[in-house]
Amino acid sequence: MKTPIPMPVLSDTMKTGRLAAWNKQPGDHVRAGESLAVMESDKAVMDIEAFSDGFLSGPLAPTGTDIPVGSPIGYLCDTKEECREEAGAIHESPVGEKGTNPPPAAPAPEEGAAPPPPAPSETKPAVSGRQSETPPAASPYARGLAGDLGIPLDSLPPASDGLIHARAVLERALGTPPPDLTFAPPAHKRPPTAMESAIARNMEQSLRTPIFHLSTRVSFRTLSAATGPAKLSLTLLLCRAAALAIIHHPRINALWSKDGIYERERIDIGIAVDTGNGLVTPVLRDVGGRPLPEIAEDWRILKEMSLKGRLAPENYSGGTFYLSNLGMFQHVVSFDAILPASAGAILAVSGPDGKDGGNLLTLTCDHRTIYGAQAAAFMATLAGLIDNPAPWTGVRP
User: Fold this and answer.
1) CA distances from 41 to 60, 199, 210, 332, 356 (A)
2) CATH number at residue 51
3) Cα dihedral: 30, 31, 37, 38 (round 10)
4) Which tens digit of pLDDT belongs to each residue from 143-199?
5) What is the largest CA-CA distance in the chain?
6) In this predicted model, which residue has the larger pLDDT, 29 or 249?
7) I want to staple 333 with a disulfide (CB 3.0 to 4.6 A). Which of 73, 128, 348, 353 is the partner?
8) Closest CA to 345 of 278, 250, 280, 274
């Protein structure tokens, strides 16, 4: 029996996945749990594992292409005899574009039957220059809508089925217009990676939230002195201090939603990490309720997974508060962070500004759940914990 291998879905927001590489080839014997291929999700690189023993069969989906979740990327056969590589690939170019499979040949007419009438010749208007290129494939509604709004179809991205739909036209009409590159220098355009696309979507969504900023200056001298004896990083200690401050000001941990305000019962803090290829935010769970050594070990594992691109959705989703620390860059004396969609606040930590070794902390808040006085009270509590870390770190000055 030939069973399809679907493109897995790793999160509620995931619509497509991108294959980075195939680890097996058609005809190879595989065992249940063995890695068949490597895929790119929103934030990480994941293995696609075989769900049973068998033989890998084609056609295989191509690498470097966005494939809708649930679509077959290959097949598993019970025996090698029924496993053979099919010609072509599963995900071909969309219908109507160059590269599609030719239509099936019509059956031969029965003997004595009248021959079918010749197919009418396809007439094409005489055009010149760039107009001679094949127009982009689009749904009729999208084509008409784009014409009414004066939006060139060739400036819109196709969907996963290869067609431009009305949604892309409306998003362009309501969103930011494309940059004018008339007099720009030559450039090479490439499609964004899955991580770059996810970051862009998240940032656009976040900027629709009504926010305000509040800043305070603190000295990290005492807290930095505790990092050595505590054998913990400054980022981790800041994370713990923020969690303890949230315990006193739980409104900072709340989230606005159209169906109500979520008052979370646990403090899960996401920490921004630069992997060199993009930004990820691994989430530490229950930062306010677990022992520091236990949290530190979790953070060590999460950082290692981040740098290797091996975070799973449960490792980077659902933070209730976020921390972005640029304190290691001494020339960055001030910045504010964009608020993630799952949180009500994010804390940005800058480098020292030369004034008594002080660092500027800036809190970005969702004004629908957090008000100015509440944010100010939280920052005062946080500053007090940073100034006096001995009671909660166990390290005496």
Assistant:
1) 19, 12, 29, 32, 44
2) 2.40.50.100
3) -150
4) 888 888 888 888 787 776 778 887 778 777 766 666 667 777 888 878 777 767 777
5) 104
6) 249
7) 353
8) 250
Mean pLDDT of 10-29: 79
Dig out the tokens for 310 from the structure: 């091996």
Within a 13 Å sphere around the CA of 310, how many CA atoms are in the beta-carbon half?
8
DSSP bridge partners of 280: 273
User: What pTM was estimated for this model as a whole?
Assistant: 0.61
Residue 30 CB neighbour total at 10 angstroms: 19
Q: Do the Cβ atoms of 270 and 281 come closer than 8 Å?
A: yes
Closest CA to 389 of 285, 259, 268, 234: 234
**At residue 368, what is the residue type?**
R
Kindly report the length of the chain: 397
Sign of CA pseudo-dihedral 167, 170, 175, 179: positive
Bridge partners of 347?
A: 323, 363
Residue 195 lies in a domain: no
Q: Is 188 a catalytic residue?
A: no
Question: What DSSP letter does each residue of 277-313 carry, written as one string?
Answer: SSEE--EES-TTTS-HHHHHHHHHHHHHHHHTT---H
Q: Are 293 and 303 in contact (CB under 8 A)?
A: no
Asked if omega into 104 is within 30° of 0 (cis), the reply is no
Of 213, 248, 331, 367, which one is the catalytic site residue?
367
Range of the domain at 387: 210-393
Tokens at 143, concatenated: 């084509």
